[in-house]
C-alpha cells in the first residue's frame, strides 16, 4: 500500500460518517456482488476483491460498506490465511471502515488481532506497521495513554532497526498524529523534526494529505481525550493547522525544534 493510499484511509477514518451521494450502479464491483448477501456469500476470491473495492468507496451506503468489509476480512482469511497480502488488505479496509463509522472498539479489536498474528509469525516489518495501526485505533477510541505507549514502542523499535524496517512515514506520522490529537503539538513537531531526513522522499500529494490528517486530528480529537493537554485546544483553525503542518513537512531540514514550536503557537492561538 502506498503512503498516499494509507494517508487517505487515515483521513477518512478520522472523519465522522455523513450522508454521501451514492455512486453509479454500473461499476464492476457491484456487478460481481449483485444478488449476493454479505452475511451468506461463500468465500470466493473474486467476490472478496469486489467487496474490498466496494467497502473502500466512501460514496456507497455506510451499512453496506461495513457488511462487505466484514465479509472480505473473514472470507480472505479463510481462503488465503491471515498473512496473505489479500487478507492483510481486507483487514486494513475493515478496520478503516469500522473507525470511519464510529465503531472504534471493534476497530481496536481488529487491529490488536492483526498485531498478534504478525508477532506470532515473527514478521518484524508487519508487526511494526500493525503496531502503528493499533496505536491509532486506540487513539481514536479514546484510550490515549495506551496509544501513546504503543506509539513510543513503535518509535523505539524503528530506531533500533536501525531503520532497516523502512516505513518512516507510517511510524513518524502515526506518532505525530497521536501527540497532536492529545494537545501535544510540540511533541508532534519534535517527532517530525528530529527524524526529518527520513521524510524527505514524501511526494507533494502525500505531504498535503499528511498535513490534512495532522490538522484533522488536532482539531477534532480533544472532545473525548482524557489526557490533560499541555497546549490550549481552543480557537484552533483547521486551515491554519494544515498550513503549519505542511510547512513542517515541506521543508523539514530547515526546521529546528525551537523555530517549529514558535510557529506552532501561531497556528493554535
Summarize model confidence as the mean pLDDT: 85
Quaternary organisation of the protein chains: single chain
Helical content band: 55-70%
Which spans of ≥5 residues are poorly predicted at pLDDT below 50?
17-26
Largest sheet properties? none
Instruction: Tell the overall outline.
Output: globular
* Alpha carbon gyration radius: 19 Å
Give the strand content.
under 5%
Tally the helices: what do you get? Answer: 13
* Secondary-structure element pattern, one letter each: HHHHHHHHHHHHH
Overall SS class? mainly alpha
List how many beta strands DSSP finds: 0
First-to-last CA distance: 36 Å
Describe how the helices and strands are arranged:
Blueprint: H1 3-14, H2 28-33, H3 45-56, H4 62-80, H5 85-100, H6 104-121, H7 124-141, H8 144-159, H9 168-181, H10 185-194, H11 204-220, H12 238-250, H13 257-268
Helix pairs in contact: 1-5, 1-11, 3-4, 3-5, 4-5, 5-6, 6-7, 7-8, 7-9, 8-9, 9-10, 9-11, 10-13, 11-12, 12-13
Give a short summary of the structure:
The protein contains 13 helices and no strands.
Q: Can you put this structure into words, describing what you see?
A:
The chain has 269 residues and is mainly α. It has 13 helices and no strands. α3 (45-56) runs antiparallel to α4, α7 (124-141) runs antiparallel to α8 and α11 (204-220) packs across α12. It starts with a helix and ends with a helix. Residues 17-26 have low confidence and may be disordered.
